[in-house]
Amino acid sequence: MIRSVRRAMASVAALGLALTIPGVASAQPGGPAEAPAKQPVATGWGGAVSSVDPDATRIGLDVLRRGGNAVDAAVATAAALGVTEPYSSGIGGGGYFVYYDARSRSVRTLDGRETAPANMRQDAFLDPATGLPIPFDQGVNSGLSVGVPGTPRTWDTALRTWGTTSLRSALEPARQLAERGFVVDRTFHDQTAANASRFDDITPTAQLFLPNGQPPVVGSVFRNPDLARTYDRLGRDGVDWFYRGGLGREVVRTAQQPPVAPGADRVFRPGLIENGDLANYRIREQRPTRLDYRGLDVYGMAPSSSGGSTVGEALNILETTDPRAQDEVAATHHYLEASRLAFADRNRHVGDPAFVDVPLKGLLSDGFAKERACLIDPDHAAVSPVPPGDPKPPYDRPCRASGTPEATEPTEGLSTTHLVTADRWGNVVSYTLTIEQTGGSAITVPGRGFLLNNELTDFNFAPLTPGVFDPNLPAPGKRPRSSMSPTIVLRDGRPLIAVGSPGGATIITTVLQVLTERLDRGLSLPQAVAAPRLSQRNGAATEVEPGVPAWLRTALEQRGHVLKDNPEIGAAAALEFLPGGRVQAVAEPTRRGGGAAGVVHPDR
């Protein structure tokens, strides 16, 4: 940490600046400040917001109170999360935006996923000396991992298409928050500390996030005036400043030549992104995935995300059983086995549809689900990796496993953030956004206050199974497969539930578990969000949170499940429309420090 202090002081002296540098965290007069209270559940009328952060939720609610709609509130909330959740989101990343339009009773989606540069080839993450994949952490901490960001254009497209306000107005509350600062909580401190050794290697990252060479102190006020100025100009000049103008050139220069600090412990490879990659970036407005689950319409995100197809396939497999006839052990066993099978199919068949013929219709068909469900032994867990199925009809193949299982489970960063919004007119947004790892590539654009993503490490560095087609290898302009699963459930054409989560590949199992426990097991939405989680992703072991009771663990192990402890799986944000026109916003009570839910007019 001493290295960071010396670098910051040297940079200040070289530039002739005062010692109050951008990003410094300062204690409040009279001692540490108190972070805003987090309320995990709120019920009432007039609109709702749920996110991981109370400042972001408050900003979204303020937009709704001033007459904005769910899209306006979602963009304002997301921009605020770029301030308070900079290691999980921001304009240096991308995401998926799912929107329910109350007037047309239709669901629309925006694919704002990052793309590979035009110069990226299939062997980009292979060591030319050996032909083998480079170590994963060397891919993460690298300009090579930086994909063309989609978040700024996602915000602009959503507002222009469905919103009622300008990008400048939507960014203004977050600009003020970045300028004024927010109170550092334990989660922000701990995330900074966990990334300190790599943040220390990039000069502007160390200056911003390691003031005085240390993570910001809990209770101090963290300010980001660089980001405030960036939001101000982005609002005034529009997203062309990012994609065709000066800010874009700064992003390209930073990725190509990461500002590595003297004496850094890591070698940051140069990035491949160029100005033309930014200029050519496009948002994909596409049809959502859709399936009927026990009379409800479940809408999700189509590829390049694997969220909608994998959650959907697992739900279809579960629909072949009657939850009323199952006890908790049987229900949990079937949930894990359905997820195991769906992940096998995800890994083999899902990639960017501009490059891969994704058999989406087959993956979401009832016939294929029945064919896969017949492989579930009610008394014994399958041994992973299980082989993928063939989603092409006819679905009359014998009930036995076939095909070649994948050799390893893909790696995805556990960071990301999710938010949901609803307005007085019944419009709903479920939006997941990310910069991939917690802290992304660790590369901050100098003077701009935001981190660049490491999203291209979501590609498989080499085929998972040699000699077998892999849909998720790098290619020029390709979008890496994602597990982000923003979801909206309708009943009779009107919204019932909106949900999503961060957590890498565990996003899929988190959303799946929340839905099944709410819709099948009789839990309320707050109970379903709070319930201890299990995650099976066609891996050798099922990950289990500490709260899973010992008797259930024992019963699962007796059926052959191999259990592995995971202290925290996902961090959901959700909402549900209740009878009488009320809406309930739900956030995590404890995971990731707890979330913040709010409604415009709370119940009295």
TrEMBL record:
L-glutamate binds at R113, D458, S482, S483, G504. Pathway: Sulfur metabolism; glutathione metabolism. It catalyses: glutathione + H2O = L-cysteinylglycine + L-glutamate; an N-terminal (5-L-glutamyl)-[peptide] + an alpha-amino acid = 5-L-glutamyl amino acid + an N-terminal L-alpha-aminoacyl-[peptide]; an S-substituted glutathione + H2O = an S-substituted L-cysteinylglycine + L-glutamate. SUPFAM superfamilies: N-terminal nucleophile aminohydrolases (Ntn hydrolases). Its EC number is 2.3.2.2, 3.4.19.13. The active site is at T416 (nucleophile). InterPro entries: GGT_bact, GGT_lsub, GGT_peptidase, GGT_ssub_C, Ntn_hydrolases_N. Cleaved by autocatalysis into a large and a small subunit. GO terms for biological process: glutathione biosynthetic process; glutathione catabolic process. PANTHER family: GLUTATHIONE HYDROLASE, GLUTATHIONE HYDROLASE PROENZYME. Belongs to the gamma-glutamyltransferase family. This is Glutathione hydrolase proenzyme.
